[in-house]
Design brief:
Shape: elongated
Strand content: 15-25%
CATH architecture of the largest domain: 3-Layer(aba) Sandwich
Distance between the termini: 51 Å
Number of domains: 2
Structural class: alpha/beta
Number of strands: 17
Order of helices and strands: EEEHEHEHEHEEEEEEEHEHEHEHEH
Length: 346
Amino acid sequence: MANKVWAYIDQFKGTATPASWEAVATARKLAGELGGGVTAVIIGSGVEALAQTAFHYGADEVLLADDPALADYRGEAYASTLVAAAKDGSPALILFPTNSRGREVAGMAAMDLNSGVIPDVTELKLEGESVTATRPVYAGKLLAKVTCAAQPQLVTLRARAFGKPEADSSRSGTVAKIAAVAGSDKVKVSGYADADARLSLTDAGVIVSGGRGTSNRADLQPPASITDEKEKEIWRAQQGFRLIGELAEVLGAAVGASRAAVDAGYIPYANQVGQTGKVVSPDLYIACGISGAIQHQAGMRSSKVIVAINKDAEAPIFKLARYGVVGDLYDIVPALTKAMKDRLGK
């Protein structure tokens, strides 16, 4: 366990998040500069098959804690298992994906390792054995350069910020078993609820999002059974999101939303992009009927290409967009969907 750079593999029921492989690939680049190897840490139950994938993305060694006691994710148990391995292996740097589990494990581990966490990083530069991390601050308006004086340095990487990693199926490595640390029994997982099975926002290369503008088509008449004005508004918004969903389906995209649309009851919170929702970095972000409040920009500012569709030519979103269309999304989105179908042969 002499490798200085480690990558934590976040997984659920044996399936790793794509951002975990981005962490391994980034660790590979840093390890190349340090002259050492990469250790991937996999914690769970029935997760041994993930080791080979970790080798393909750049790991030289896998520390594997495969134990029935770790079948359900519990932050304390996973962090304690990682901490025990880190105290034995003394890494200089541990990389995590920026998601709810990755942030929790990183934060808990930092406490026990007497170190700190640099969260939601979009760029890393190695200086000796220390890294200088770049991360957005003030809702993405500024970029801060941050260092951690303690070791190990714990860093969470923003999904898709470091590029899609390339797998090399010819690579292999060694697997070392490590002991599971069950931690406290105060937290128990009683069950799971099925979530929307559509494409994850954080993993999506293309996102089509809707805002309050989805409800602005007053000439749309809801069924006679809907008499409440708020319910009429929600019904109109759902017609707008249906158009957005059709475009997303053609593009193989995820559907997002602004906080205003979520707060108004148009779409579930799971679709929210922004400071209090998901932070995303897709190759293409299409904002439909979204004014572009700073809280929303904080969640999508790092998108590679931003397209804005809005009736208000003065909407703040146009200052951020590379391409802007001034018009009603009810007119523009169906035309765009048809054009994409023709172009893609669908």
